[in-house]
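dumping this here before i forget
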Amino acid sequence: MLTKTGQAFAGREEEVLREQIIAGNCVLFIGPDVGSDTLRVLPGRARLARQLAACQGWDFQDDWSFPWIAQCHELQFGRSSLISFLKEKIGRMKEPPACYRAIAALPFRLILTTNYDTLLEKALEEQGVAYQKILGTYDLKHGMLDRVRIVKLYGCITEPDSMVITEEDLFAFLDRWPSILSILEGGFSGKTLLFIGCNLAHRDFRHMYHYLAPMFSKDTRSAYFIQAGIADSLARYWATKGLTVVRAEAGELLRKAAEHIAVREGEEKRPRERASDLLALEVSHLTQTGREHRVNQDCLRVCMPSDPQQRQRGNLFLVADGMGGRKAGAIASHLAADVIVERYYTDTKEDVSAGLIRAIEAANRAIHQQAEENPAQSNMGTTVVVAVIRGQELHVANVGDSRAYLIHDGEIGQITLDHSWVAEEVRAGRMTPEEAREHPQRNLLTRGLGLDAQVEVDTFRRNLESGDIIVLCSDGLTEYVEDDEIREVVTSEHSSAALAVKRLVQMASDRGGADDISVIVVKVS
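structure:
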C-alpha cells in the first residue's frame, strides 16, 4: 500500500523539510503573502482588494475577492486604470525583501509564483544566479534546464498583457491550468512540493491544488505548506488532502536553510582532510534469519574503501529488509544493496545527499523492472536505510521502516521517519505510539523500493563528535527491543561494537525473533 497523506501538525517535519530544501529536492510555489517582511512592502491580494475598493469609494466586505473587485474596476474605469493601480502599489518596493534573498540563495531549480513583481528576479541577479522568466506555454515548452526557471503563472507587471487580474482572467487561467501542469510534469518528478504565501482558505488555491494533487501523489515526494498560526481545523482539512502544514514563519525557515548552506560552502572551501584523519570508527554488524523464515531476506553492507577516490565519498553502511515471499525478498534486498553501493561510489560529482538519492532511485528502478519481468517476483520489494560518514558529517537516507539512530551524549534519537501506515497515523495524532506497537497493521508500509516506478527518498544530515554511536537496523530488532534498551546496550561501559550487535540480536531472538534481525553499530572516537 502506497499512500500520500499529509500531517496536520508537523514537529520533526520542519527539520525534514529544511533538509529537503538544502538538498535541492524542492519545487517552490510562491503565493502573494510570502512572509512578514514581504507583507510590509508588497501588498497581498487581500490588501490590494481593500485598496482597490477604497479607490472606488466602496465599503469593503470580507467575502469580496481581489479578482471580483478588479473585474468591477475594469468595467468602470478600463484595463489601463487597473494596470496603473497595480504598478503604483507594487512598484514602491525597489529592493528584494529578506525572504526573496533567502530563496535566491537556496537550490530551487523550478519556482512557480502567482506574484506580479520582479523582486525575486532581482534577488537572483544579486546572487549571480542564472534564471529564465517563463510567462507563456511557449516558454514552458522550451525552458532552459541549465538555470532556475521562474514560472509567472499570473504574469508579470513588466508585461501587462500577460497578467491574470480579473475574474474573467482567472477563469481563463484555470481552464489552461491542467495543460500547464502537463508541460511541467517532468519538473515535479521525484520532488517535494513546497507552498508558501498561499491562502489555504481561498477557493482559487483549492481549485489549483485540485489539479496538482494527483500529479504529486504519483510523481513527487511530499507536499508541504509553511504558515505560522494556522487554525487547527484548516490544518486538519488539508492533511486529508495530502498537504503537511509546517507551523513556522516561511521567511525565517528559508533564511535558516540559506544560512546552513552558506556555512557548509564555507567549510567546503577549506582543505578537506580524509575521513580517517578526523574520526576513528569501530564498526560491527550481524544478521540472523527469523524463526518464521527459511531464507534471510535482510541484507547488510559495510563499505570502508581503501581506494583514494572512493575514500573521498566516505564510508557507507546499509541495511535492507526484503519482502515478497520465499526468495524474492532476498533478491530485492541484495539487488538494492548492489545497485546503491555501485551507483553511489561511481557518482563522484554528486554531493552526498544527492548521490544517495540518485543511488536509491536507481535501485528502485532496477527492482521494479525485475519484478515486472519475472512473474514469480512480482510482489518483491525492500526497505533500505543508508548512512554515509564523510569527515565529521553523517548523511542518512531511507525508504521504509528500517531505522537509523544516533546516540549523542548518552541520549538516543531516531534520525529516520518510518514509512509505515501506523507511523503516519501517530505523526498525524490519530494513534499513540503504544497503540501503533500493538496494531495488527503495524508492518504495512507506505513506501518501499520496487513497489512503484518512482520512489520518495528522505535524507538527513548530522554532525558527528567523538563518543557518538550510530545504529542501523531492520524492524526485526525494533519489533522486540525498545529504543532505550538499544541505548543501554551500545553505551555500556564494557560493550564494544561487536558485543553490542551480538547482544541486540540475541535480545530480539530471545523475545520471539520471528522476523530477520539485522544490526550495524558504528562507534565514533
